[in-house]
Amino acid sequence: MPKIRKILIANRGEIAIRVMRTCKELGIATVAVYSEADRSALHVRMADQAYFVGPPPSRESYLVQERILEAARQSGADAIHPGYGFLSENASFVRACEKAGVTFIGPPASAMDAMGEKTRARQNMIKAGVPVVPGSTEPIATQEEARTYAEKIGFPVMLKAAGGGGGKGMRKVEQGSEFDSAWRSAKSEALNAFGNDAVYIEKYLEKPHHVEIQVFADQHGTTVHLGERECSAQRRHQKVVEETPSPILTPELRAQMGEVAVKAAKAVNYVGAGTVEFLVDAHRNFYFLEMNTRLQVEHPVTEWVTGLDLVALQIKVAEGEKLPFTDTVPPRGHAIEVRIYAEDPARNFMPSPGRIQYLRVPGGPNVRDDSGVFAGYTVPNFYDPMISKLSVWAPTRAEAIARAQRALSEYVVKGITTNTRYLKAILAHPEFAGGDYDTSFLTREHTALL
Ligand code: ADP
């Protein structure tokens, strides 16, 4: 396969810039796309070329396949990097790229199909011998059937949208009396958010840990895992702080989960970067949750401890090169990432878009800022309000926590409200310091953290 010379990045914000940085280092030309709301965005300024793709709502711009492909054609890009979100997990887009003769930097459409719908993924994983969270493997047709099923596996249960993502379309049901109304609202929420009202049922696991495994596969049959990320610090089922190594994994459990993640990827003939997410219960049993068939937001922590550039690896794999390793790369030291959002924790985490009047980004040893903002920039209200991912590395976990706190104390942004104080409170919390915090941590300690 020929070398990639020009990449169109079908995304915006920090991830578009993250991808461009690697392209620049590899001598690959970059093409940005932008909506009306992003005319003055940093990703547009940093790219070699930029194409306008439509009005602010992403449905009318970043999600319009034909516009993106037209920009690729006009610019002469030979590959498209989708980032995360938007078209990154859209199998029909992968097929459209193939048809247009543009390399899609990501897995084949067939692997996305196999992992896209959560119920289909669960069926495929059971077939492959991967343990899944107990529950149904098909969407459940009627309310009566669903209730009978829930009673059979026992409350509490989790109703989940088969087409779900981003923590949406999920509902915990504590007991039978709540079931009918929860079912109806889960169905309508799923339909609204994903255009698909298919809902299935999982056993609700009490206080699990979310531990995910980074996998990488090339086109020559090598599939490896690159360790885990602990993502149990969540608010409304969305990650806020991530770290690696996970403080709760023993080397044995890491090897075991890594092996299962590789098995999961191989079962769907996976190629490129992917993440196999697991829930780990108090007895340290682990269950497949879902696979994300793209680069994750939290990939920098893995880069810190492995010394690898995951975007560069994605590009090399897409060019048909072999992975430069055939076994896992052992982690060195400890890395933590915090997600800085333009939101107000004191007002129920309401997004607070607006103009950034002043910005000072932390520096010093082993601190990394992945961001798409600058002083004078107006954060638009059409997109995810994350403005920066601050990540740090240190030899030990305790030092990494101290470094993350130090970096956060240097972060100054004026003009908009951010969650930096909340993030500092998480890092300073004894339960976080202890390392055995589960997915209930942020909700349980909500008041103490504000
Ligand atoms: P999404 O695709 O929307 O991100 P996931 O299936 O990955 O949804 O789940 C997101 C989070 O929701 C998990 O990390 C976990 O905290 C919680 N969760 C999901 N399923 C369950 C379950 N069966 N029991 C307990 N918590 C769950």
Automatic annotation (TrEMBL):
UniProt entry keywords in alphabetical sequence: ATP-binding, Biotin, Ligase, Magnesium, Metal-binding, Nucleotide-binding
InterPro entries: Acetyl_CoA_COase_biotin_COase, ATP-grasp, BC-like_N, Biotin_carboxylase_complex, Biotin_carboxylation_dom, Biotin_COase_C, CPAse_ATP-bd, PreATP-grasp_dom_sf
PROSITE patterns linked: ATP_GRASP, BC, CPSASE_1, CPSASE_2
GO function term, MF aspect, one: ligase activity
Record-linked Pfam families: Biotin_carb_C, Biotin_carb_N, CPSase_L_D2
All residue ranges annotated as the ATP-grasp domain in the record: 122-319
Domain (Biotin carboxylation) ranges: 3-447
GO BP term (any one): malonyl-CoA biosynthetic process
Domain of life: Bacteria
The UniProt record lists the keyword Nucleotide-binding: yes
This protein's name: Biotin carboxylase
